[in-house]
Amino acid sequence: MSNASNKPFFITTPVYYVNGKPHIGHAYTTIAADVVARFQKGSGREIFFSVGTDEHGAKIAAKAKESEKDPQVFVDEISEEFKKLWGKLHIQYSSFIRTTNPKHIAAVQKVLQTLSDTGAIYKGFYEGLYCVGCEQFKTADDLVDGKCPDHNSVPELMKEESYLMKMTELQPELTKKIKNDELAVRPERYKKEILSFLEGEKLEDISISRKNVSWGIPLPFDKTHTTYVWVDAFLNYLTVFGWDGDEKNVPKEWPADVQFIGKDILRVHATIWPVILMHLGIPVQKTLFTHGHILSGGKKMSKTLGNVIAIDDLLERFGVDGTRYLLLSAGPFGEDVDVTVERLTEKYNADLANGLGNLVSRVVKLASNLQSTTYRQQQGGEEYPEDLKKLLSGYKLSEALQYIWKKVAEANRYIDETKPWELVTTNQAEFETVMQKLLGDIAFIASWIEPFMPETAEKIKQALQERKTVPLFERI
Ligand SMILES: [Zn+2]
Predict the structure, then answer these.
(1) Which H/E stretch holds residue 102?
(2) pTM for this prediction
(3) If you measure from the C-alpha of residue 179 to the centroid of ligand 1, how many angstroms do you get, rounded to a whole number?
C-alpha cells in the first residue's frame, strides 16, 4: 500500500450510457473533470482521470434492435462517438473503460460471486415500480403525478424472482460515513439532501439482477439472471485499472479523490455504490461532487421544445477553447446553468474576443517597441495564487474563471490608463516598466487558463516568445 501523500489524484466521470449519442451534458461533466485533472497535474500531482461508456441493459438492447444492429456493433459505434468527441474537446483522460470489455465482465462476476459467498447477495423477490427509461425501481417520492419526471412515463409494477443485495443493515454505517465526510457529498446541499433521505426512509435491499434481460453480465451462480446495470457500471471505477475483482488487489489509485456526477444519479452513487464497497471491505470514494443540469432558455433541452444546443454546433461556432470556456463560465459548477446561443455569443465576444484576445494582441503589438534586451520572456508564470488554488481545489470552476477574468479586465484598464503608446515616445523608461508589468500579467494569465483553455495558453506563450501578435478569438 502506498501512503496517502504519493497516491495519484484520481478523478472520474460517470461511464456514459450509450443509448444515444453524446450531448452537451456529457461534454460539460467531462470538460470540468479535464480542467481539474489538468490543474492537479500542473500543480505537480500525479493524476489518473477515467472516462468511459456503460454498455449493458434492456434499453440498449432495445435501441440496437430499433436500428437493426447487433447490440455489440451498436455499442461499439456509440462508444466510438464518445471517444471522438473527447478528442475534439481536447480531453486528456488517462483511460477509457468500456463495460463490455471482457476483463471488466470477469471482474464484475468475481465481485458478484464474492458478495454471494459472503451472504451480501441473496435470492428473493422484488416488487416495485420500474421505469424502463431509467432502468431503476422508483419510490413514490421519485414520481411526479405518478410518472417518472425524466421520462414522463408511468412506471410498470413489477414482481419477479431476483437476487437482492443487502442495503438495510449497512444504512446506519453509510449514514455515518456521509455525515462525517468520510464520503463527502458536495456541494453541501446535496449532502443535506442525501442525509435527509437516509434519515427519513429505510433503505430497502435492492434487486441486483434481472431475468429476461440477455444483454448484460450473467450472474456467475445463476446464469438465468443478468446483473442490474448499475452494479455493472459502478465497478468501472476499479476495473479501469485492469482490476481483477479481488478485494485484496485494490488498485493503489483507489479511493477516488473525486467523482463528478450529475444530480440525477446522486442517489445511486451515494447509496448503492458505497454499499457495494462496504460489503467488499473496500474504502468508499472520498468525494462525490454533484453538478446541475444544463438548461436552455430556462427549460430542460428537448427536441419537442426545439431548444437543444448540439455540442458540435458549439464547437463549430466557438472553437474548442471557446466551447470549454463558455460551458464552464455559464454558472456555478454544482447548480443548474442556463445557456442560449445568443448569450454564449455575447459572452464570447465580451470575454474572449474583446477581453482576453484584445489584451494579448495589444500588449504583444506594443512590446515590439521594446529594446530587445529588455524584452525577455517572463518567468514564474507557473504558480497559482492561493485564492485561485483554493477555488480550483474546491471545484469552484466558474468562480476561478471570474477570478482570472478580473485580472484580464484590470490589465486592459491598466493599458488604457498608462497609455503606453504615448509613453513609447515621451518616456522610454516608464514605457519599459509598464510593458514589463503587462508582459508579466499575460504570462501569468496564460498559465492560469491552461487547465481551461490549453490551446489558447500555448498560443499566448508562443506569441510572447516569438513576439508575433495573434488574433486569438475573432468577433462573431
Ligand atoms: Zn425514468
Answers:
(1) helix 102-117
(2) 0.93
(3) 29
